[in-house]
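Note to self: keep these together.
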Amino acid sequence: MDRLSLLLNRFTLSAGVFHTGQICGIHQFERDTRCGHVHLIRRGPVELTGGRGGPLSITEPTLLFLPRPDSHRLIANDRDGADVVCASVRFGGGGRNPITDSLPPLVLVRLADLPGAQALLELLYEEAFSEQGGRQAALDRLCELLLIRLLRHCLDQGLAQGGTLAGLAEPRLARALTALHEDPRRAWELSDMAGLAGMSRARFAARFHEVTGDTPADYLASWRIALAQGMLRAGRPLKLVAADVGYGSSSALTRAFVRKVGQPPAQWRRTVAGAKGAA
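Structure:
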């Protein structure tokens, strides 16, 4: 698989469109720790407030993605209004993951700057502003395709702030990261990763830390734990999860899990189940 497909295969993207049409006045969106928000501004003007930034005035067709949304508001003129499509977005069941952790609090891209998206946008608008059968399912899938286009754009334009996407945006590091993502069970050594990148061990380690913010060993551990969390959330037994993500035993995975998450897998799984039941 290519660098982005491997990532999305591990942390599945799902979108749920919850508003299409005109908005007028103030629309408040609460802080959400489990999913991101997408706002597709077809026609403005719209003012965005919150989201860890100052007020932004949006006057042309624009895609807004808040991977880890704080409380924010869209404000449209009471007289003319604005046409928008709003959706929630989850990667791998929600919560923290290598995709959203790599992105800034707000990704803002003019639709004119999103290559090859025009035909997709026309399909999305056609579904959003009509009442055809299967409309919701079509909107959700089209929104997911649009987000994949956006993630490609983030990679190509270097919009990531450290982490996985920043590493994948650099060709030499991407070769090592893609291999690591594809085979987390392998007993990876620094020399293996450096060889794939075509760099010396010292140069690779320094460049890896500079771009991603992690040492190669710490990144590998974080990746394995993120995969383990997804498997545990799905109900897979701890012993099998340990083997699948490259740990020799359940106890080895538990020690790594505590270092990264702050609690053992069984306790974490109960916490997640409780939060899901309360949602």
